[in-house]
Amino acid sequence: MSKYDKNNVCRTSPMGWNSYDYYNTAVTEADVKKNAEYMAKHLKQYGWQYIVVDIQWSDPNAGALVPDVQYVPFTHFCLDEYSRQIPAPNRFPSSANGAGFKSLADYVHSLGLKFGIHIMRGIPRISAHLHSKILGTDKTADQIANPFSVSKWNGDMYGVDMSKDGAQAYYDSIFALYAEWGVDFVKVDDICNTNMYPQNPYSAQSEIEAIAKAIEKCGREMVLSLSPGPAVIEKAWHLKKWANMWRITDDFWDEWRLLKAMFERCEVWQEHVFEGCYPDCDMLPLGVLGGGFGRERKTRFTRDEQRTMMTLWCMFKSPLMIGAELTKLDEETLSLLSDTDLLHIQQHGGKPVQMCRNDFEAVWQNTDDEGKTYIALFNLSDVEREVCFGDIKAPLRPHASALFVR
Fold first, then answer.
1. What is the dihedral of CA 237, 243, 248, 249, to 10 degrees?
2. pLDDT tens digits, 29-87
3. Using an 8 Å Cβ cutoff, are 286 and 322 in contact?
């Protein structure tokens, strides 16, 4: 990538908010604005900056069948004449008359924040069935769509066959549109691990390259985030070449067994953390979650487990994406999300190193750009125990952690 260095886009690991954990598919413009306003007032000063609209923002009926069905089958997206998804005006009023996300992105930017969106890999199935046009080519959607490349969990898209004429033009066209809107961050789903095909979980490799090339061509810097995981460790070289962040786990929720498993995932990926390239532990399921899933609730993590999660993510330099409804954060959660020691090492740390791990405890170390060493002790057991590393000792409650700075 000669003229455009993707690593310049995020020299530090991204920090932001994503709508999915609370709103599911049904977030609206008003919801995005109030969360952006909260971030600008309470979190921006600590480095939080991205506001990301997650899945199905082009579906006017998204969420209509919750809690029985998450994604409305055979739904009709809002599309332009070139097979490109555009925001549903009933949910995003400022997008009416073809304005897209520009007004909302401008508003987020006016708060000193950055704006992001989620997309699914591929081209809308309805566009292929209707033989819709593609900007910049005489080929139509059906001529580039691969009907044998689909998501295991969402039926909205066909994969794009990158061997076909017009395939790159399609990806170029959608990212040109996002650049016009002012998008700063794009989360691409069903691409990091195409788990419909366990014999070939990295089957979308050529589409990752096409998307990265489209971002380079569009003329606007955008963080490229790939989902879902678990990422394929054998393809770490390829992920680092083309993307800024990639999920190392499937959807992460507030269960201790999932959090404990993340210590092993981070161990596997620790050698692949570089400036501009960040293995992603997924969103932080803190605070109040699940409103758009039909079952609003507080996180199931204990306070100790919340701090353990935040500590591991920061020591590992994972991107941080808050999944909660920000306006419902309590003071203790807000305090955790503004912990300056944790956020400092997440932003200014070097290579994370797991110093030891067994079924009962773990120790991670990182050194910041001023030479200060951060050491985190974790009690992974279900009973209180003392965790030691060298001359450092800490009595820790079950699932708790302690951070030391030297």
1. -140
2. 999 999 999 999 999 999 999 999 999 999 999 999 999 999 999 988 999 999 999 99
3. yes
